[in-house]
Give the backbone structure.
Amino acid sequence: MIVSKSFRWSDPRSITAMAAALSLVLSSQARSDEGVLDTLQVHGFLSQALVITDENNFFGPSSENEGSFKFTEIGANASLRPHEDVLLAAQVLSRRAGGDGSDARPALDYGVIDYQILSNQQRTFGIQLGRFKNPFGFYNQTRDVAFTRPSILLPQSIYFDRTRSLGLSADGASVYAEERFNSGIVRFKGGLGTPTTRDLATQLFPPDLDTQVGGETSSIAQLIYEHNNGRLTAAISAADVNLDINLGPSDGELNFQPWILSLQYDMGNWALTGEYAIRNLSLSGSGAIRGSDITGESWYIQYSRRFYDNWQWLIRYDSLVSDISDRSGSEYEMQGLGPAHSRFAEDITMGLQWNLNPRVLLAAEYHHIDGTGWLPLQDNPDPSETERRWNMLLFQLSLRF
């Protein structure tokens, strides 16, 4: 997401840093120029979902009784422009997604000081300092707000919810640029920082292990081309993510390198979207940390159609393979590491959205899944007890102001 001088609220460091920055601005600038407060923008949103599965659990005990209500998102964001070229923006999010609910404590989703060095009719260039949203794929930078998602759940092969914190944001610095042509727009965003790792340990490793995961210096970049006012959009995203792993006396390092190609053709009342990712994941260490080096593959294709003034439906096929050299997971199972179906997932999704008005959204969707490659470990601590084929039904109410 690129921030223009007319943009009111936007991307993405710590709450303390943003509070200090805001205090400084309000104490020095507001006294001399009360008009600064006129640029203050505050927005918020709330989403509550019901998740029902016939097998396995997703975001809570979804396969029991009437399902799970443990999928809640509550957020508030604010922005202030103390100078024509400077924007302060931050968002605090409380998100419960299964587990014991401890992850629902409010946390800084993003918080940046954005300085726009150059902006004219032809080009824009700026820099952001703080906690910035990672630019990859079409949806990652706006994934927290239900109104910006085409479905309740984004394609899990690309936008993993179980490792959401890793892909969401990073603490550091990013630059963005935009070049406008007669036929279209080219946008670039790249960042260098430390990835957030909140609650990541229990998603990468069995919850009963006392595992610590910390972020190390990582990089990410994305290049987007929009042709003919967004009729055709193409993007390529790449990252080099580094983590430190501590498992008791054992130490290790994890390196994750995804490449994502994104394409969308949008005719206004319908859109065809597809994304393809190739992911290299290497883990090195000693003791209890088992070294590995695998390459995974993800892709989806999605057709969405808008009808009447406020309805949209979609159908999507989504595929995930954890290791392209062992697509069926049979070798993984033969080594006694877990069930074969935990190494892949094929998901057929059908969804429906109804915007009652600009502030209220109702959504429902159905998933038929073969495989458990993206099931949250915290809700399914014993993979051997999961079922290969399962179905999921979701309903969601979303509000915003």
